[in-house]
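Bump. Still looking for Gamma-glutamyl-hercynylcysteine sulfoxide hydrolase structure tokens.
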Amino acid sequence: MCRHLAYLGPVRSLAELLTEPPHSLYRQSWTPTLNADGFGVGWYPPGDGAGPVRYRRAVPIWADANLPALAAVLRSGAVLAAVRSATPGTSLDESAAAPYTLGRWLFSHNGRVEQWRSLPEDLGVPLTAAQVLGMEAHTDSALLWLLAGRRLAAGEPPGYALAGVVRATAAARPAALLNLLLTDGRAIAATRHGHPLHYRRDAEAGSVTVASEPCTDDPDWHEVPEHSLLLAAPGTTEVTPL
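Sorry for the wait, here they are.
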């Protein structure tokens, strides 16, 4: 079971978001479950509209000796990060570590899809050999991102695109676990289908955090109901059934 997190709000160091909280994503890499098959961080540099930038490794997050120093000096007001527990039969190199990217989008998947290689055929979604070979990694998560990215490129709103992928995939693979997380640095879309998902808005700070598990002991974390879509920005959150 992977863990992931997205943050939008005032500019903060990556350390404040990923390593320093008492139940940080860093800590979630070994408790309550082990997520030792890589990690990744994507962020939008403040001020110039650039990004996203990614830093990904195929080692456990605690084994990267460079991360603490980098996280202390890198700052952003828009971040998506994940620690990975690999689905059997998928790539183990750093290309398989979320976040995946397309233009300004960052994407992560917490879950598992059995028999994912035949999923496009079962969904009736024609993929060319070039599209399959062009997938960033040989994983169920990369395939879900390809399917979601096609919808985004066709003009679907982010929440609609994620919800469509989850509904279609769940119909074809009823046992699939499909927590998806997406941001363009301005808003967050996320689905809960099979694993926990939480969010916290800090009205005073003007921030919102979406995470698999609460990262702090603050009492104002909210659990997203099962089989739901969450749309979030610093000033608003909306939860609707999938």
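The chain has a mean pLDDT of 94.

Edit: fixed formatting.
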